[in-house]
Amino acid sequence: MMSQVELYTFCAVILLGMGMTGLILNQHIIRKIIALNIMGIGIFMLLISTAGVHSGAIDPVPHAMVLTGIVVAVAGSALALNLAARLKDMTEQADD
Amino acid sequence: MPIDSLLDHLLVFGILLFAASALLVSKLFSAIVLFISLGLIVSLVWIRLGAVDVAIAEAAIGAGVTGVMLLAAWKRLR
Amino acid sequence: MFKTDDVSAKPAHVFYKALIMVSMLAVTLSLLWVVLPAEVHSNAVAQKITQNMAQSGVLNPVTAVLLNFRSYDTLLEIVVLLVVAIACMPMHRGTVHTHEPVITSSSVHSLVALLVPLITLVAGYMLWVGAFAPGGAFQAGALLASCGLLIILSRKFTFEFHTLTARICLVMGLTIFVGVGIMSQQSGLFLQYPVESAAGLILFIESAATLSIAATLLVCYLALAQANVRSNAPSAIQPMMQPAKVEQEK
Amino acid sequence: MTEVLPVEGFNFGPILIAQQPFSALPWVVMLPLIAALLCFTLYNIKAQRVISLLLGIGQMLLTVWLASIIAEDAASSVVHQLGGWPAPLGIVLTLNGFSALLLVMAAVIGFAITVYSCRYFTSSEQERKFWPLFWLLLVALNGIFISSDIFNLYVMLEILGLSAVSLVAIQAQRGALQAALQYLLVGLCGSLLYLFGVALLYRTYGVLDINLLSKVVIAEPVSQLALTVITLGLLLKTALFPLHFWLPSAHSNAPAPVSAALSGLVIKGSFYLLFVFWFKILSPAATFAGATFLGVLGAIAIVWGSVKAFNTPRLKLVVAYSTVAQLGYLFVLFPLFFGRPDLAMGAVAYFIVAHACAKAAMFMAAGSIQKAAGHDDIARMSGIASKMPLSIFIFAIAGASLIGLPPTGGFIAKWLMLTSAIESQQWWWVLVMLAGGLLAAAYLFRILNLAFTSGQDVPSEPLKNGPRERLWGPLILVTITIFIGFNAMWVLELLNAGTGVFALQPTDGLMTELANGSVNTAPSKEGL
Predict the structure, then answer these.
(1) Per the omega criterion (within 30 degrees of 0), is the bond before C101 cis?
(2) Could you please report the per-residue DSSP string of D434-497?
(3) Quick check: D21 pLDDT over 60?
(4) Whether residue D519 has pLDDT greater than 80
(5) How many Å apart are CA D110 and CA D213, to the nearest integer?
(6) A57–C49 C-beta distance less than 8 A
């Protein structure tokens, strides 16, 4: 029987592996972004799973780190999707 | 098995299931919807782990904003 | 590995796919083998934070870390958003028009009319409550952005990217953060708020940051969604869809 | 709030308190940030140019002043506690000789690129977007050089990566956008791997500060895994063979000032981090076998990059492949740190500076040629030297530095590398370094040879000579390249001011590890 920390650590590492595999194997940009975000969720889970191990104070530093990480991930995804959209417009124009 | 532990196992199972199907499903639109749902389940996990701030941010930004942008991109790249 | 030549999906060779899957499985298992038995640190930093909470100006430890103990990280996080906002803004002077509102049904309209003030209120509450309980600028900013999105979708809408107002909205959060950081230097240390006014300064920074975050998210969305409205306003959208002419002539 | 806070469980030693003059340290980040805010708010190219030139000079003065303080007071590094919170609680900025040298380098090259860019762009839309993004790039670079918090470094890496991608994407052409998208995905994957390493380290040791972490890390599976994933992530960003696949297209498709910044500065940011992780933070987990593996990859990169550069038809692509090759040298130096760390340290720092100056100048000269000729097809460049003597002169001097000919900075760098290889009794790297010099000579003389022969068979096209003033930028860099070829001691002395707390101590730990087969975990290091 796994403890809570072990269980979520396990889940985090599997998510990370899944995300990396998806990033390598998928060709479509949207799928790559989803894979990157799943990788990110895995890493965030790794950070948060240990924040409350010790009885008493919950460590807020990993929480703050994950909050920052979520915002950075959204920013990166938004930029990637924008570039892909611009690239598509340009490709269509070249085809015309 | 205590109820808390059961809940944890269910959540982990759900997360892995949704993540795998978001990566494997053949229709792109379904992949996006599955990813958004994954974000919502993950925010439940954050609440379970005592990170309510992160849970709100995950639901609003991680699932919400990313989801909206993915859908907008899906519509445009189609 | 990261080929993006074509936006459409290309099936990879089956053997190659299987090989990658097996090796990634091996990688994941070895990660598990190392990470699972690893010991977890003692909670030294959390204790330090509990001891110093009284001087942080807020009661929510996460907000204290984000806007006082490690406020430099948050400052740079807003810089990340600014980078993306600048990058996403269309190259050429351009306006996004939606001549036909996306939401047309009148019942949905009345729902929107109800939701917009409600969400704004919740966003404001989220911002304020961040000092005591879960919440804060980023969550409030996302809510505010969703509010803006509802307005955009429900009416005829014109948005000019390259106006001074738009740019000021985007940089306001960062400017105020940097300004407070420089002004509040005690004994020459950057971002050191005086203990007695820390609460007020944090709320001030967060309010400005909320607006900028919402503006950034909206700009990213609008730049992404502009093709959806292209057919509605061909004359206005056309110039920004063209690649830089000047560059091609050279 | 500024008193020393001991932490239970660790023997962290005293934490230095910022002294009065060093309240200037955050300005290294704030000055470019303010410049970026001004440039974006005004959004007018004339105002942006004036602001950039003025603040560029200001940044140079600031960094040179900080470097002179470091050089005078060689005792230890400079510390600034942000918000008044000491290390395990808050974020601390530190400055040592090495980072001061890199700051000066970034400021000077940044200024040269600023001068060049004032007269480069033909489209005002591009230029308006260029300035704020360029300043944000400098924010991230300076931030990386002075930050001493591994999570803060993650945020800095993201700013660096995203602004670099955005700068490539301002070239609104299909190839550039494709390259930018690939660069972005690689960069995001690299920073996530880095973040994974940070998560592992925080989970295990509970601190994020570099100095505290370096004292509690021991050689165990977790720290070695963290070093592996961080190395992998940063190698993706630094583009070491075989992870260089994205670099040639991104660096050659960007506008010339952006290419100069990417090849000269951005890659050095992630390399610096890699270096800090290997030889300072995680030095107990670093192994000679791992360093040799990186060295071998570096050697392959030198050969592969040079061969590709020789066979490439486009001028900017040659320069980009040359970056792939030159980065190899930096990794060849990794195993030498286990022999004579003092010599290897000097060689790394000198090579970074020499390569940054030469490569930035070379890209700007190539950009000038491309603008004037309307193409960058090498086959059609015969006789170009008579039409653009200044650009070709800059290109040639920068090339001499890349090959390692005297009297350039590149010569001193090569010489330091050779000495450190021989002194470390790892003479086989000497062969790689010499072969690399010959290969660089081959691909550069191919271009220069063509440029100086008058092309009878090829109809020479009329050249639209661009504004001459922009070449002041690369001329500054070429002058510096020659200057540091004559004044090596000046650079090395600044470096030695910082090596006391930087490279030597961790490698001392490494040597005990090598000698005893066990790890010395006693926090015996002085200073920080």
Answers:
(1) no
(2) HHHHHHHHHHHHHHHHHHHS--SSSPPPPP----GGGGHHHHHHHHHHHHHHH-HHHHHHHHHH
(3) no
(4) no
(5) 32
(6) yes
Give ∠ CA A22-A10-D198 in degrees, rounded to 5: 75
Query: How many structural domains comprise chain A?
Result: 1
Three-state SS string over D151-170 comes to HHHHHHHHHHHHHHHHHHHC
Residues D412-439 have a mean pLDDT of 91
Q: What is the pLDDT of residue C97?
A: 62
| Total residue length of chain D | 528
For C191-200, letters b (16+ CB in 10 Å) and e give bbbeeeebbe
Q: Is D110:D96 a contact under the CB 8 Å cutoff? A: no
Whether a cis peptide bond, with omega within 30° of 0, leads into D242 is: yes
Chain C nearest CA to B3, separation (Å): 23
d(CA D14, CA D527): 9
DSSP bridge partners of C189: C186
Chains in contact with A, where contact means 3 or more Cβ–Cβ distances below 8 Å, are B, C, D
Lowest-pLDDT range of B17-31, D72-86, D203-217 = D72-86
- Asked if D84 and C189 come within 8 Å (Cβ–Cβ), the reply is yes
Residue predicted with more confidence, D96 or D116: D116
- Shortest distance between the Cα of A37 and any Cα of chain C, in A, equals 16
Is it the case that residue C40 has pLDDT exceeding 90? no
Residue A61 belongs to domain with CATH number: 1.10.287.3510
* Average pLDDT for C19-42: 90
Q: How far is C132 from chain A (nearest CA, A)?
A: 14
CA-nearest of D427, D410, D421, D283 to D357 is: D410
CA distance B10 to chain A (A): 11
- B68 inside 8 A of chain C by CB: yes
Nearest CA to C45 out of C75, C72, C77, C70 is that of C70
Could you tell me the two tokens for D466? 């661009």
Mean pLDDT of D148-174: 95
Q: How confident is the model at residue D268 (pLDDT cuts 50, 70, 90)?
A: very high
Q: N- to C-terminal Cα distance for chain A?
A: 62
User: Locate tokens 């930087």: which residue?
Assistant: D502
Tens digit of each residue's pLDDT (9 = 90 or more) over D274-299: 999 999 999 999 999 999 999 999 99
pLDDT per residue over D469-503, tens digit each? 888 899 999 999 999 888 877 777 777 765 443 43
Where do we find the tokens 């061969």?
D307
Task: Tell me the C-alpha distance between D50 and A7, whole Å.
Answer: 57
Asked whether residue D50 carries a pLDDT value surpassing 70, the answer given is yes
**Of the listed ranges C76-90, C102-116, C229-243, the one predicted with least confidence:** C229-243
Identify whether the C-beta of residue D117 lies closer than 8 Å to the C-beta of residue D471: no
Report yes or no: A1 at the C interface, CB cutoff 8 Å. no
Q: Which of C135-149, C232-246, D114-128 has the lowest mean pLDDT?
A: C232-246
Q: Which of D367, D365, D387 is nearest to D455 (CA)?
A: D387
The complex's ipTM works out to 0.91
Interchain CB distance below 8 Å, C9 and A21: no
Tens of pLDDT, residue by residue over D176-191, are 999 999 999 999 999 9
Which of chain C's residues have a Cβ under 8 Å away from the Cβ of A81?
Answer: 224
Chains that touch D (3 or more CB pairs under 8 A): A, C
Q: Give bridge partners of residue D92 from the DSSP assignment.
A: D81
**In this structure, what is the dihedral angle of CA atoms C175, C181, C184, C188, given to the nearest 10 degrees?**
-140
Q: How many residue pairs from chains C and D have C-beta atoms closer than 8 A?
A: 196
CA distances from D338 to D232, D274, D299, D343 (A): 21, 16, 17, 11
Residues 50-79 of A with CB under 8 A from B: 51-52, 58, 63, 66-67, 70-71, 73-74, 77-78
